[in-house]
Amino acid sequence: MPPPKDVVKIAIQMVGAIPQLIELQQTKPLASVLKDVCDAWSLPNAERYALQYADGRQTYITELNRGEIKNGSILRLTTSPDQEAERLYSGIQSNNSDVKTDSLKKLASLSQDVTFAQEFINRNGLKQIFYIVEEGSDTGEMLAHTLKAFMELMEHDFVSWEILSAAFIKKIVNYVNINAVDVSVQQLSLSILENMVPTSRLLFELVKKEVTLDRLLTHLQASNAKLQLKAMALLIALLLAATDAEQRDMMEYLREKNIRQFIHKNIIHSSEPPGDEMAHYLYVLQSISLNLCERRMRTPMDPYSQEQRELLQSLRQTAFESESEAPASNVSTERRRSLCAKEFRKLGFMNNSNPAEDLRRAPPGLLALDNMVYFSRHTPNAYSRFVLENSSREDKHECPFARSSIQLTLILCEILHVGEPCSETAQAFYPMFFGQDHFFEELFCICIQLVNKTWKEMRATQEDFDKVLQVVREQITRTLSLKPTSLELFKTRVNALNYSEILKLRQTERLHQEETLAVPVLELRERLKPELLELIRQQRLLHLCEGTLFRKISSRRRQDKLWYCRLSPNHKVLHYGDVEEGMHSPPIESLPEKIPVADMKMLLVGKECPHMKEKSSGKQNKDILELAFSIVYDVEEYCLNFIAPSRYEVSLWMDGLNVLLGKEMTSERMQRDLDVLLSMDLKLRLLDLENINIPDTPPPVPKPPSNLNFCYDFRHAEQ
Q1: Cα–Cα distance for residue pair 408/291, rounded to 1 Å
Q2: How many other CB atoms sit within 10 Å of the CB of residue 584?
Q3: Which of 99, 349, 388, 502 has the CB geometry, 3.0–4.6 Å to 355, for a possible disulfide?
Q4: Least confident of 109-118, 315-324, 598-607
Q5: Could you tell me what percent of the chain has a pLDDT over 70?
Q6: How do residues 95-143 score in pLDDT, each as one tens digit?
Q7: Residue 677 domain-assigned?
């Protein structure tokens, strides 16, 4: 007979004693359970003890989390959190340096537990930590343990970062700014400052003033990858917390210091490729830099602005310089206006009498004008060739430079997500972005020449304008997906991807996607489905058995804590637990937490998940919602919450978990996989029928013959 749901069978250990095997009644007060355990070992003062998980993070058991205890859990009898907090509070004040260091080391470890952290903070423990930092002169191991303990205590959000004293902040800043300290201390100091920056404007201004960009650049050039990562994290935090004007100034200063070239050489092309966290910071830096174009992109041209009119006129003068050399005194105003209108028409403006009207659409606004001017000034030969070549063609075949530039600028803004907020998890940066100062403008210069090249390849007319730009968008997108490392490589690849290659790729993809719609083939398709669905189910379960590394994202979006989850080979238990950075496939025995598949009730996705309900509904959380899912398990309906590293992982896990729950797989990825497998299987089975038309209906069965005299009589043959 199975045990009641409110009873779990567990083991309790104690150093120097034989373990106890007990049936824990969840309805019985924890104090009574502790008293029974202590009595069994003849221990007085049961209130001084507590239960703690023996494996994993060794969390203290409380009335709030006792429901998470599972059958087969191994607990340990240990000193209660309040007693331990009191002991360590005294230990960190000891005059004996060994005792003090050991106490701080233990404090850094135990502070991860929320119950202990609350007890220690209630004893004014943070004040003592502040004192050690403010008054101490140690810059080695003791200080590292102190800062680690401080970070862990602050992670629980019991107190605000704004309580930090000026003296404490000054010390932390000093550890970042001087070289004569341990690297681990500098890493922790950078992390503390990174956490301070988003919490208040005052702290942001203080950190920005005290930790200069030059100092952060020095840390970025360090050979220590972890120190490099923490410096980048603080730099990104400062940029995200800055106003638009401050952000612009900071980015301009970083540009002057050649930060892009340094990143391109020493981080992107270092011996070790950037990790997930560094890739995210590079993506954010790229996004912030590209978003500096947003102001010009959203500003329409002002026809009354002298500066903007001069920029517009410079386009005409650069292209038709020799034609405009006639003395102004010899040409009437009307004649000059007519000449200008003709030249603006040759430039490809739709409204040649008032070309400013073409630039009043925002986006792309003034950004399109900036790109055209940059192209005309930095590649004047290519610019003149583009304009003059098209002005000499027949009217219907000329490629309009201005109209193409305006539309191309809009396309580049959409592809590069200019003006969109940074994603909180994305890692998709372009390596070539960091190899060029004026990336957007230089990319435009390559792509506008691509427009002219594609226009000629397609023998396009004005009616084909949208079609040509659609092909150009595809050429750019396909080439960017290859992640070229430099603009030169991008230029080579995008020019190699000519119109005929695009047509071939489209045809290949269409052939892959097309399915024969003949009724017999559709019937064969339906017969093949169950077998292929079973194949996909097995693949999904195999992926769950291999497991996935997930990141924890706290209220401040820190992503440096990792945990791993995998399915047991017999498909009966989900194992999970915290892991260290760099561990990609931990053995199943090292994952202490378990959820029996039989206890799983349902799956929640996106906004339905408990860990997503408190998030704001802004654009920045949309990508998080798409990656979130939860498993509801046990009678009490506990939840195990996930934030997947990618949409691909979400699909695999949702399908695999649905299989375990006995439900249908519903992800788009499953449908894509099924379509690919069906397509391949059908093509293999129909190879012998190539170029044969398959009728929608089977051919009619012929009528029986009028006589059967043609039948062969075996009996006569045998005689």
Answers
A1: 17
A2: 8
A3: 349
A4: 315-324
A5: 91
A6: 898 999 999 999 999 999 999 999 999 999 999 999 999 887 776 889 9
A7: no
**Which positions ≥6 away from 424 have C-beta within 8 Å?**
553, 557, 620, 621, 623, 624
Cα–Cα–Cα angle for 400, 404, 405, rounded to 5 degrees? 120
Say what the pLDDT of residue 513 is. Answer: 54
Q: Are residues 418 and 458 in the same domain?
A: yes
Give the pLDDT band (50/70/90) at residue 715.
low
In 41-177 the beta strands, taken as DSSP E runs, fall at: 49-53, 74-79
Residue pointed to by tokens 């046990």: 634
Among the listed residues 692, 385, 347, 673, the one whose alpha carbon sits nearest the alpha carbon of residue 521? 692
pLDDT tens-digit readout, 196-240: 999 999 999 999 999 999 999 999 888 888 999 999 999 999 999
Distance of alpha carbon 154 from alpha carbon 547, whole angstroms: 31
- Helix, strand, coil: what percent of the chain each, to 5? 60, 10, 30
Average pLDDT over residues 294-304: 93
Residue type, 697: T
Q: At what angle do helices 201-210 and 183-196 cross, to 10 degrees?
A: 140
Query: Rounded to two decimals, what is the model's pTM?
Result: 0.73
Distances (CA, A) of 601 to 192, 633, 635: 41, 5, 8
Rounded-to-integer distance, Cα 230 and Cα 692, Å: 65
- Same domain membership, residue 257 and residue 142: yes
Q: Which residues pair with 639 in a beta bridge?
A: 632
Identity (one letter) of the amino acid at 520?
P
Q: Which value, in Å, is the radius of gyration of the alpha carbons in the chain?
A: 35
Higher-pLDDT residue of 662 and 685 is 662
Residue 57 and residue 108 share a domain: no
Q: What separation, in Å, do the N-terminal and C-terminal C-alpha atoms of the chain show? A: 76
CATH number of domain containing 658: 2.30.29.30
User: Measured between alpha carbons, how far is 577 from 640 in angstroms, rounded to an integer?
Assistant: 11
Q: Which two tokens stand for residue 642?
A: 């996930």
With the CA atoms of 583, 588, 590 and 594 taken in that order, what torsion angle do they form, in degrees rounded to the nearest 10? Answer: 120
Residue where the block lists tokens 């599972």 = 70
* The predicted structure's pLDDT at residue 138: 75
The answer, yes or no, to whether the previous bond of 364 is cis (omega within 30 of 0) is yes
pLDDT tier, 690 (very low <50, low <70, confident <90, very high otherwise) = low
- What are 632's strand-pairing partners? 602, 639
Q: Is 673 exposed, middle or buried (0-12, 13-18, 19+ CB in 10 A)?
A: buried
Q: Within this chain, do residues 198 and 245 fall inside the same structural domain, yes or no?
A: yes
| Residues 6 or more apart in contact with residue 214 via CB below 8 angstroms | 257
CA atoms within 13 A on the CB side of 295: 7
Report how far apart, in Å, the C-alpha atoms of 100 and of each of 91, 313, 333, 424, 498 are. 6, 74, 89, 39, 70
Q: Kindly tell me if the per-residue pLDDT of 364 is higher than 80.
A: yes
Higher pLDDT, 517 or 233: 233
Contact 213, 179 (CB under 8 A): no
